[in-house]
Specification:
The protein contains eleven helices and four strands; from the N terminus they run ββααααββααααααα. It has 295 residues and is mainly α. It has one domain: ABC transporter involved in vitamin B12 uptake, BtuC (Orthogonal Bundle), CATH 1.10.3470. Helix 9 runs parallel beside helix 11.
Length: 295
């Protein structure tokens, strides 16, 4: 049996693939955070709760309205994104011009309210969400059995990441949004509705979190606390990639998932902290992050 540093090659390849799947979730979640911070300068601590709302919206649509997984994958992010628009319009917009710490505290409190409300009505044990029939089963890769659904998660995550990059970097709307962060008064003088753009940008970032929640629902049980632990890791990923960097969020999310998988093979005890160690090293050597720009 082939071994690398005393580890069987099958175990190494299996953990690499699992790390890539986890990295896909990190990439989509950190992408939403990067969009919101890069365009609105808001540290959205409610992102984990909104990720949970996406999973719950998919569960409700499936259980009570008869909308299947594929419909929920589209409808749930729209519903949660609309909720995010309401948050930006009636709460966050009132903090325009004040210290960013107030936005962080507001979104942190909002996360606690949302999670506490769902724990009150649904409990903390969680509810199962069935895997869609079209993606049941899997394939034997020789070194591990890969469920089709987990492969779909990687493909869907990469697709939404590439679409988001194209939307903000290669379209006129993306150019308006970037210009609005640099000089909103000048852009508004040309007749562009900057407040509407920022509201839509926040709603899109929230919809990305909900999209990740729908993807996660068949893998992890739908429960009110599913985003509370994950959001800390995602914030670390965003810091490593560079706050506000879309490309940094995608590349770093996938990379950190793979690094976490490799750590489980060679040093399992450190797998829960390796991302934070990398974050500390990056902040010492490059405070703006790997893809961020110093301000």
């Amino acid at each position: 049996m082939i071994q690398i540093l005393g580890v069987p090659i099958q175990a190494l390849l299996g953990q690499l693939l699992i790390g890539l799947i986890n990295g896909a979730f990190y990439a989509v979640l950190s992408l939403g955070l990067a969009v919101i911070f890069g365009l609105l300068n808001i540290v959205n601590f409610a992102h984990g709760a909104l990720y949970m709302l996406g999973a719950f919206a998919a569960w409700f649509l499936a259980q009570h309205l008869g909308i299947g997984y594929w419909g929920a994958l589209i409808v749930a992010p729209i519903i949660v994104g609309a909720f995010g628009i309401l948050i930006e319009r009636f709460l966050l917009r009132r903090l325009t011009g004040v210290d960013h710490l107030y936005g962080l505290l507001l979104t942190f409190g909002l996360a606690l309210v949302i999670e506490g409300t769902f724990v009150k009505f649904f409990g903390a044990s969680g509810m199962p969400f069935p895997t869609p029939a079209a993606l049941s089963g899997g394939v034997n890769l020789g070194f591990m059995f890969l469920p089709w659904y987990r492969g779909w998660v990687v493909v869907a995550s990469l697709a939404i990441c590439l679409f988001t990059w194209w939307l903000f970097e290669r379209t006129r709307m993306g150019a308006y949004l970037r210009a609005g962060t640099e000089n909103p008064s000048l852009l508004q003088a040309f007749g562009v509705n900057v407040p509407l753009l920022t509201t839509l940008a926040y709603g899109y970032g929230v919809a990305l979190a909900a999209f990740a929640g729908v993807l996660a629902a068949p893998i992890t049980q739908v429960n009110p606390l599913m985003g509370s632990n994950l959001i800390i890791v995602v914030f670390a990923v965003v810091v490593i990639g560079g706050m506000g960097s879309i490309m940094g969020a995608v590349v770093t999310g996938l990379s950190m998932g793979v690094i976490e998988g490799l750590t489980r093979v060679f040093w399992p005890e450190a797998s829960a902290t390796v991302i934070f160690v990398v974050m500390a090293i990056v902040l010492v050597l490059r405070p703006a992050g790997l893809f961020g720009r110093a301000t």
